[in-house]
Amino acid sequence: MKSFKRYMITSALPYANGPVHIGHLAGVYIPSDIFTRYLRAKGVDVISVCGSDEHGVPITIKARQENTTPQAIVDKYNAIIKESFEKFGIAFDIYSRTTSKVHYETASEFFRKLYDKGVFIEKTTEQYYDEEVGQFLADRYIMGTCPHCGNEKAYGDQCEKCGTSLNPTDLKDPKSMLSGSKPVLKSTKHWFLPLDKFQPDLEKWILTDHKEWKSNVYGQCKSWFDQGLQPRAVSRDLDWGVPVPVEGAEGKVLYVWFDAPIGYISATKELTPDWEKYWKDPETRLIHFIGKDNIVFHCIIFPAMLKAEGSYILPDNVPANEFLNLEGDKISTSRNWAVWLHEYLEEFPGKQDVLRYVLTANMPETKDNDFTWKDFQTRNNSELVAILGNFVNRAMVLTKKYFDSKVPAIKEIDEYDRETLAEIPKIKQSIEKSLDEFRFREALKEAMSLARLGNKYLADTEPWKVFKTNPDKVATILNVSMQITANLGILLEPFLPFTSEKIRNMINYSSKSWAEAGTDNLLQPGHQLNEPELLFEKIEDDVIEKQLNKLRKVKEENEKANAKVAPPKDLVTYDEFSKMDIRVAKVLEAERVPKTQKLLKLKIDTGLDTRVIVSGIAEFFEPENLIGKQVVVLANLEPRKIRGIESKGMILMAEDIDGKLQLVSPLGMVSNGSTVK
């Protein structure tokens, strides 16, 4: 592999219409952070940039829903996302935003250069227009019936029920989401990037020159090439975004897919005056960390933009991950089916590395994976507590007990000691190989194998039994154990930065230089250690149950929101309705009907008489809670015998969409026998 002078790392810009969730972390930000921390520990010249993607139609929709401005929406979520990343230890050199002045200038200059070079195609097309509002409609502002599955709430770009990609003109009975009116087709001019002209170069660059790319990335690109690239609009009719910087483009902005990746460049510009060497020098290695939904934009479209501009380097790798599901269901912002990072940080204080560990161990590198709270608990208790935490704590406590927290010198060394020490550089090399090839799950597993090695070594050598008869042997055992601990303090840094720092503080060794790891003499004899402290704590069942209950509540709320009310019954005449004698009555007595689960026997005062009604409401009401309540009854229902009890009438109930019954009662007290009209 070619060696580079420096690295430019980008992480997909999170969309600023909601907070960050675990799917984003596992897909993009944790792998990006692991790789960046690894490079920094090696002393490599590296810049890592990210920022909020703050333009586009979903922002304007969110603003309209919340009766506020797009700027207020992006300000709110930019602050939440940025703070969450900082607290979680995602170490970007800069976290910027696409509403910054520098970004507007950079994106405008980029467009203008391509425009002046004659790269774009100008086209006039027919697009839907809302005459009531006086505005062209973005695809997401159009709703209609999907021609494939009949879903009446399909958007102009996609049906979320069947997943089919759509054009707005595919919809049956299209309606504007702004006014509810039927939109009309109207001519509008836009600029298109002719991707088809770049296909031969891009095809060679990816399919021939970058066969080492991950199979999911390579395969998706090949699929697009096989279909044939088509010109793609770089502008749209909208009032939120970077204005198209040419005459006659009033009311038009840069399409967010064109604007957003330029955010990587503008963020680097904000960070350093030397930004060009990170973007234009062939000695720089550019790597994009993204999720699979962004593969085409970062492997085909953005490179086409960079090639068209002419002075930029192209990405050397785009190690995209697949998706992470939650408890067997697809993570969804709109359905609130997610574990939100800012909420996790509040509910699990000091446990950033637990989530980092679980998401790395379960990272969806080659296929979609599933996060479950039970797995989170198991990995914390069985791996972080029982393996890593247990080894470091035992090594520290035993050294304190037998050698007053000073690293002892090696005195008696045998073959097993030498074999154990020889494993340290091998493990380091395995971690490096995995990280260099973007296999982060495997790299973490290798790092944890060092803690497993230490645990096994202590269990096999049993220094607590040997000390009375051979303290010199224990000195060797604990020296070896502390060298393993010191190596963990460096080798865990990319994965578990908070834990790594705790270890280094405990062993009084501040360096996290990767070059120093892999040796068996990091801590010299006599080196003073600090006080031991526990790295992790067990997570109990009640903590996990609380999170599962939270998700159950979300699922119930979604089911309610999606449930349909009962369809209307056939029409009745006024004469038919007027035959019903509906009155207010008072419950005098209530008891369960023996040997039944659903039936209550109610004695009621109808104002006309005192009678008995048998009602199938026992699952929803305790008998004693009904006594004294006013209810509404159908008083002239023909009597019938139920379980041998003559029932004269019917109690009227309202049934919720989840099947729960509620009493129908007057708001205030009225006379028994009052008629309902």
Automatic annotation (TrEMBL):
A motif ('KMSKS' region) lies at residues 330-334. Keywords: Aminoacyl-tRNA synthetase, ATP-binding, Cytoplasm, Ligase, Metal-binding, Nucleotide-binding, Protein biosynthesis, RNA-binding, tRNA-binding, Zinc. Binds 1 zinc ion per subunit. Zn(2+) binds at C146, C149, C159, C162. GO terms for molecular function: ATP binding; metal ion binding; methionine-tRNA ligase activity; tRNA binding. ATP binds at T333. GO terms for cellular component: cytosol. The keyword Cytoplasm applies. Residues 576-677 form the TRNA-binding domain. Its EC number is 6.1.1.10. A motif ('HIGH' region) lies at residues 14-24. It is found in: Cytoplasm. GO terms for biological process: methionyl-tRNA aminoacylation. Transmembrane segments: none annotated. Its cofactor is Zn(2+). PANTHER family: METHIONINE--TRNA LIGASE (PTHR45765), METHIONINE--TRNA LIGASE, CYTOPLASMIC (PTHR45765:SF1). Homodimer. Is required not only for elongation of protein synthesis but also for the initiation of all mRNA translation through initiator tRNA(fMet) aminoacylation. This is Methionine--tRNA ligase. It comes from Tenuifilum thalassicum. The gene is metG.
